[in-house]
Amino acid sequence: MELDLIFQIAGVGIIVAVLSQLLKQSGREEQSLMVSIAGLVVVLFMVIREIGVLFDTIKNVFGF
Predict the structure, then answer these.
(1) What mean pLDDT do residues 33-58 have?
(2) Per-position DSSP letters for 6-37, written without gaps between them
């Protein structure tokens, strides 16, 4: 696992948290929820891509 991936996930989390708090304080709870869901989807796509690389590596190691 690369260290860059951890920093990218942390960066997305910080940005989502700040935006969510700003939207909640301005009375836009629905948009805050949508920002949180969008951040979750972005992080899931990043992790799914890495899981695909892991499966390819395992396939190459065992010769499947």
Answers:
(1) 94
(2) HHHHHHHHHHHHHHHHHHHHTT-HHHHHHHHH
Is residue 31 within 8 A of residue 19, CB to CB? The reply is no
- In this structure, what DSSP letter does residue 2 have? -
Mutual orientation of helices 29-62 and 3-25 as an angle, nearest 10°?
170
- Is residue 11 within 8 Å of residue 31, measured between CB atoms? no
Cβ proximity of 46 and 5 under 8 Å: yes
State whether residue 23 is helix, strand or coil. helix
pLDDT at position 1: 57
Whether pLDDT at 34 is above 60: yes
Neighbours of 46 (CB within 10 A): 13
